[in-house]
Each structure stands twice: as C-alpha cells, then as structure tokens.
Design goal:
The chain contains nine helices and no strands. Helix 4 packs across helix 7. It is an all-alpha fold and 195 residues long.
Length: 195
C-alpha cells in the first residue's frame, strides 16, 4: 500500500510539472496503476468491479488524448521538420478550425472523465466507496483536480479558439456535475450503510 501511494504521489507531481506532452501523458496514465491496485486489493466488497470501471473509463478517455497528441506531434514534424512533444512548441502549431475543435474535444473528454463531469462520472461513486480510506482521500483531494488543471493547461492552452467557445458550456456543466457528484456519493454511501 505504501509503495502504491508513493508511486501515485510521484505520478501526480509529474503530471503537474510536465511541460512535455509525452511526459504528461505518461504521468497521467501512471496514476491509474497504483489507484487500480489500491482499490482492487485493499478495497471493499465490490472492489474488483469498481477498480475495473475506474480503469476502463479513464483509459478510454486517455486513448483519445493520445491520438490527438500524436496528430499534433505529426503536424509539428511536417511544419518544423522534426517531431516535438514540447508544450510551448506545440502551442505555436496553428491547426485549421475544425481540426482544432476535434483535437480539443479529444483532450477535453479525457479530462472530463478524470474530473469527472456528468455524464462521464459513473465510475467515481464506486471508486470512492470501494477504495481504502487513504486512496479515497487522494482520489478526492488531488487526482480529480488533475483533470481540471490539465483542461486549463493543455486543453485551453493548446486550442485557444476551441476553448474560447467552450468556456461558458464548461462552467455550466461543471456546476451541474458538482451537484450530481454530491448527490451520487450521498446515495452510494447510504447503500453501503444499509449493507
């Protein structure tokens, strides 16, 4: 458990300080492994179901983000002559409007699942209830914030046109997501107490 917590801490710190999209993606994905192990081994009664649901949801969103990252790196290689994962170099790549919107949503969906926002939030109540106390605290205190941070840093930073048009929608959905999240956690906790 201590090794899983330390690995999770290192991955979270790396995701917050990364200026390289490959390093960020690696850290973003590495967070899944120790949390999956913590829920799957030290979790509650339905620990395997909760761990798999957590892993599959977040991995699905990350695959979309990986596709967008590789597309941007390829575009940079065509324009500059060499591939680069550097955030500052990739932020200078001017994509056509439709392509920018597609790439923005590929990043945004990965981050919305991690936050989690409605309707991509159904993994969270199970993960919170089944996780050991330390894992649940880290999940709520830091891991969910990585999604919001990454949306602001990478989603809005790399695709300013798409993010200027989407900010109002995000604020409304985030407010609704917070209300639904609180209600779902309260409902799930009441189910556990009845058992």
């Amino acid at each position: 458990l201590c090794i899983a917590l330390l690995l999770l801490q290192g991955a979270m710190i790396a995701s917050f300080v990364a200026l390289d999209l490959f390093l960020f993606y690696l850290a973003f994905e590495l967070m899944l492994v120790p949390m999956y192990v913590m829920i799957g081994i030290w979790g509650g009664v339905d620990k395997i179901k909760a761990a798999l649901k957590f892993f599959l949801y977040t991995m699905l969103g990350s695959v979309l983000m990986l596709g967008a990252i590789l597309f941007m790196v390829g575009t940079h290689a065509k324009l500059a002559g060499s591939p680069s994962f550097d955030l500052l170099a990739l932020s200078k790549v001017m994509l056509p409007q439709k392509t920018q919107i597609i790439c923005f949503w590929a990043f945004a969906l990965a981050f919305f699942i991690k936050v989690p926002m409605f309707p991509l939030h159904t993994w969270l109540p199970d993960a919170h209830v089944q996780a050991p106390t330390g894992g649940s605290v880290i999940l709520a205190a830091v891991m969910l914030k990585v999604g919001t941070y990454a949306y602001l840093r990478f989603g809005m930073g790399l695709f300013p046109w798409a993010a200027g048009t989407q900010s109002a929608n995000l604020a409304g959905v985030a407010c609704l997501g917070g209300i639904v999240y609180g209600a779902l956690c309260a409902w799930k906790q009441s189910d556990v107490k009845r058992l």
